[in-house]
From TrEMBL, chain A:
Residue intervals passing through the bilayer: 9-30, 99-120, 132-159, 179-199, 234-256, 284-306
Molecular function in Gene Ontology: dipeptide transmembrane transporter activity
GTP-binding as UniProt keyword: no
Domain ABC transmembrane type-1: 95-299
Gene3D superfamilies per record: MetI-like
Keyword Transmembrane: yes
Protein name as annotated: Peptide/nickel transport system permease protein
Organism of derivation: Sagittula marina
PANTHER family: DIPEPTIDE TRANSPORT SYSTEM PERMEASE PROTEIN DPPB-RELATED
GO cellular component: plasma membrane
UniProtKB/TrEMBL annotation, chain B:
CDD domains: PBP2_NikA_DppA_OppA_like_6
Cell compartment(s), UniProt: Periplasm
Main location: periplasm
Gene3D superfamilies to which the protein is assigned, alphabetical: Dipeptide-binding Protein, Domain 1, Dipeptide-binding Protein, Domain 3, Periplasmic binding protein-like II
PANTHER family given in the database record: D,D-DIPEPTIDE-BINDING PERIPLASMIC PROTEIN DDPA-RELATED, PERIPLASMIC BINDING COMPONENT OF ABC TRANSPORTER
InterPro entries in the cross-refs: Peptide/Ni-bd, SBP_5, SBP_5_dom
Signal peptide start and end residues: 1-20
Residue span(s) of domain Solute-binding protein family: 67-394
Gene Ontology, cellular component aspect: ATP-binding cassette (ABC) transporter complex; outer membrane-bounded periplasmic space
Superkingdom assignment: Bacteria
Molecular function terms, GO-annotated: peptide transmembrane transporter activity
Protein name: Peptide/nickel transport system substrate-binding protein
Organism: Sagittula marina
GO biological process assignments: peptide transport
């Protein structure tokens, strides 16, 4: 177990260093001068030069990379060129939207997918299975932004139960939850559909294993065998998927944030890229890479918890 | 059944809320300001929130674009046009510090300084010194006569800032306007509240929230669901007829200072040849571009000047749509079979959608274009700075910016000496009749020489609750002046 964790930790560190170099290079190569973007078309050369000095853009690239990297190690993620506020503050601010949204979406996805997957697997080939899997197929196929627009059309414009978008802040908790309801649904349902399909096929595979036959032989009903022995064994691929989905939900909700004009992390990156706010792009991307790697690490840990065989493997190697 | 009752209840609720006189406003804009200092960035979004609301200058633009007194209540101009003496209003900054001549000196000197990052620094070029005569009087001495000085001082980039709070101006701006900055939820909204000690007429609104909604579909939903009371600069022109037909809303379509042009690289072949430029101009059907790209919203222009300006000349007939003439001109210029060039397009829909239409119109006369879509930062680097383009479409939104044609180093590289002479004469006179003549000469010169193909003046659509009044219909400068906005019921 400990060896297994140590190996995972080492690869985590190497990934982070490699990622920082790649991010910096890619952002540096992209054309467009942040100062020129900010000062627009009437700016004079000396004004541009003054701003470049103010932003330390006149330093050579290796110096800026070193400055950035060492700053991050000390917890300083730099100051946004355009917003002129510390990137860390902006990210913290945006996370108050993105993190609850991602967590709620994932919880809702699991809450829908778990019973749906169990139900479909236990009625394999019967009309119930076909209906649930048909719905899941639809959920996978429908683009989430289109689904989001339908939700807005119904619940915000026609029935006016939920706001069409925006986020009032957590100092009004009820309003905040109301504002996140439609985005959560729009984000969760396609993920739930994918999860349900994976869970169903994983469960069906498990049902063919010997231990299920043994469980049945010792007198468990098919449902009991499925829940007590099948589910736990079928969880590994589902956990992998959930890890990937969480990272996606955290950063990849750009389109949903756009449709509901939510001040989340995805839109921060999108804006920063178009405004050539390089330092923000670099630092936020780095933080996301960090988040993805940590989530992957935690997923690995979760495997080990869910499946004792993985722990033993680690010791043997 | 219960569901429909719920809806009825919701409607009843909103109706009873409306019965009480409302004094707060939620207004949406498409772009969020990057920060809140109008004197150190080109972003029009900053002025869209703060101009005339939070910050004031010595002079200001009104809704028609005319220059009006603001913090300077009156002024005297010396006979040689070199000395301007301003008498100042008894204003107070939002942080309680008093406004006086020192603040004017500080603000103007800051904008003119060597290390200034003011995006419109040329506005202050003529100013030689700023002198404090007494607390209520300030004197500007110019190095050369500048007929445009009062106009220049009305820009958002020339507003008066408080020296005491300059360190935090980007996140907590302090001005002298009728509204004070209250809160900024980055990525979502900015809230302003009425300033009790405002020196001028108090506004009707007590609180205004600016929401930022960039996606056109989300904009439509927010207005339709009445989550916002108004949307200034509504980004989905295709949906305007829906709002026009709905009694809950009013639609205002105003004009802007945005001359939308198909710019040509005058510094390079083939566009250094006036005949080729004329051919391009005649190949374009403006109305088709306006209908196709802007859903009919936009006024055709024949020169680089805003049609709502009293000095505007309608010169569209100098470049009337005539493909046969365009082909003949191309042949005369030595391109009987046409040629190939680049068409670089920045992100706004006028450019992306307009570009496709213009490309097909040019193809019809034999000019093949290679379309490249660019982000703004790339456009600034490649087209604006690098001058690496054949054709590009862009809207010039600065007020009265025809003088860019006198700059040979400007991206389309014109700067004919005769035109430069006109602008030198313009700078030296403040006589209105003479200025009109000179401005009209300039308009005619650039239209006759077909420096660029002039397409249309960008329209500015606002969708608002039908009970609101006092919103600016036009955009003589980027601003959402709320001082006169009120609810009528």
């Amino acid at each position: 177990m400990w060896f297994y964790l140590a190996r995972r930790l080492l690869s985590l560190g190497v990934s982070l260093i490699a990622a920082s170099a790649v991010i910096f290079l890619v952002v540096e190569i992209a054309p467009g001068d942040p100062a020129a973007y900010m000062l627009g078309i009437n700016a004079q050369p000396e004004t541009l030069a003054a701003l470049r000095t103010e932003l330390s853009l006149d330093l050579p690239a290796p110096a800026r990379y070193w400055h950035w990297i060492t700053g991050m190690l000390g917890g300083d993620f730099g100051t946004s060129y355009t917003y002129r506020t510390p990137v860390a503050d902006m990210v913290a601010d945006r996370l108050t939207v993105s993190l609850p949204l991602a967590v709620m979406a994932l919880v809702l996805a699991v809450a829908v997918a778990l019973p749906a997957g169990l139900f479909a697997a236990s009625r394999r080939g019967k009309p119930g299975d076909v209906a649930v899997m048909g719905a899941a197929q639809l959920g996978v196929a429908v683009p989430n932004f289109w689904f989001a627009m339908l939700l807005v059309l119904g619940f915000a414009i026609t029935w006016r139960i939920f706001p069409s978008g925006g986020f009032p802040g957590w100092d009004q908790p009820l309003q905040a939850l109301r504002a996140l309801t439609l985005p959560t649904i729009a984000l969760a349902l396609p993920q739930a559909a994918i999860l349900a399909r994976v869970l169903r096929s994983s469960l069906i595979d498990a049902l063919h294993e010997d231990y299920i036959r043994t469980a049945r032989a010792k007198g468990l009903t098919p449902g009991q065998a499925l829940r007590r022995h099948g589910l736990r064994n079928a969880l590994i691929p589902v956990l992998t998927l959930m890890g990937l989905q969480f990272s996606f939900l955290l950063a990849g909700a750009i389109i949903i944030e756009q449709v509901f004009y939510l001040p989340g992390l995805g839109r921060l990156i999108f804006q920063s890229i178009s405004q050539r706010d390089l330092i923000t792009v670099e630092s936020v991307t780095m933080l996301l890479v960090f988040a993805v790697i940590v989530v992957n690490f935690l997923t690995d840990v979760a495997y080990a918890v869910a499946d004792p065989r993985l722990r033993r493997q680690g010791r043997r190697a | 059944m219960t569901f429909s009752r719920l809806i009825v209840a919701a409607f009843a609720l909103s109706a009873s809320a409306a019965a009480a006189q409302q004094t707060d406003l939620t207004i949406a804009l498409q772009l969020e300001p990057p920060h809140l200092d109008p004197t150190s960035a080109a972003a029009g979004a900053i002025d869209s929130v703060l101009y005339a609301n939070v910050f004031e200058g010595l002079t200001r633009f009104d809704q028609t674009g005319a220059v009006q007194p603001a913090l300077a209540q009156s002024w005297e101009i010396s006979d040689d046009g070199l000395t301007y003496t301003f008498t100042l209003a008894e204003a107070t900054f939002h942080d309680g510090t008093s406004f006086d001549a020192e603040d004017v000196k500080f603000s103007l000197d800051r904008a003119r300084a060597d290390d200034s990052v003011n995006a419109q620094k040329p506005l202050f070029e003529a100013i030689e010194t700023v002198e404090v005569v007494d607390a209520r009087t300030v004197r500007l001495t110019l190095s050369k006569p500048e007929g445009n000085l009062l106009f220049n001082l009305a820009w958002g980039d020339a507003v008066i800032v408080a020296p005491e709070s300059i360190e935090t101006i980007k996140s907590a701006p302090v001005g002298t306007g009728p509204f004070r900055f209250a809160d900024w939820r980055q990525g979502d909204s900015i809230t302003l509240t009425a300033f009790d000690d405002y020196w001028g007429k108090a506004p009707a609104l007590t609180e205004a929230t600016f929401k930022f909604i960039s996606d056109p579909t989300a904009a439509f939903a927010a207005v339709m669901a009445q989550d916002v009371d108004a949307f200034a600069g509504f980004p989905a022109p295709e949906n305007l007829p829906i709002f026009e037909a709905d009694p809950r809303f009013q639609v205002l379509v105003g004009s802007t200072e945005g001359e939308t042009i198909l710019a040509m690289n005058n510094g390079e072949a083939p566009f250094d040849n006036p005949k080729v430029r004329a051919a391009v101009a005649h190949a374009i059907d403006r109305q088709a571009v306006i209908d196709g790209a802007m859903y009919g919203y936009g006024t055709p222009i024949g020169t680089h000047f805003a049609p709502h300006n009293p000095d505007y000349l309608d010169l569209t007939n100098l470049s009337a749509f005539d493909p046969e003439q365009a082909k003949a001109l191309l042949a005369e210029a030595g391109y009987p079979d046409g040629f190939e060039t680049t068409l670089k397009l920045p992100p706004p829909s006028y450019a992306r959608r307009g570009g496709e239409i213009i490309a097909s119109q040019l193809r019809a006369v034999g000019i093949e274009t290679q379309i490249t879509n660019l982000e703004w930062a790339q456009w600034l680097e490649e087209v604006f700075r690098g001058k690496d383009f054949g054709l590009t479409i862009v809207s010039h939104t600065e007020p009265m910016d025809i003088s860019i044609y006198a700059r040979p180093d400007y991206y389309f590289q014109y700067g004919a000496p005769e035109l430069v002479a006109v602008f030198d004469a313009l700078g030296a006179t403040s006589d209105p009749a003479e200025r009109t003549t000179l401005l009209q000469d300039a308009q005619r010169m650039i239209a006759e020489d077909h420096v660029n193909a002039y397409l249309f003046q960008l329209a500015f659509p606002t969708v608002a609750d039908a009970r609101l009044e006092g919103l600016w219909q036009n955009q003589p400068t980027q601003a959402t002046d709320l001082t006169a906005v009120r609810w009528t019921q």
